[in-house]
Amino acid sequence: MATIKLPAVLVGGSSTSEVRVDGDTVGDLFENHAAEHGPELKDSVVENGEIKEFINVYVDGTPVDGLDAEVPADAQVRVIPAASGGR
């Protein structure tokens, strides 16, 4: 089972959380997470069958660019919204 590290801004909490989810691909992880915990995370990350433009997903520290990226059983998956702003 992979572990997804979720920033508070995507899950409405006050701190980063972790959840263990089954899945062979990044897309499987988000589908299985939605089935068990509700669609909020998937809706925040996925749009039209792709990872949203300003969301970064890493599997064991390596950036992935699609939902079909493979996920090893014991992987650490991080979901990070892109930061912007300032002058």
Automatic annotation (TrEMBL):
Pfam families: ThiS. PANTHER family: SULFUR CARRIER PROTEIN CYSO, SULFUR CARRIER PROTEIN SLR0821-RELATED. This is MoaD/ThiS family protein. It comes from Halorubrum pallidum.
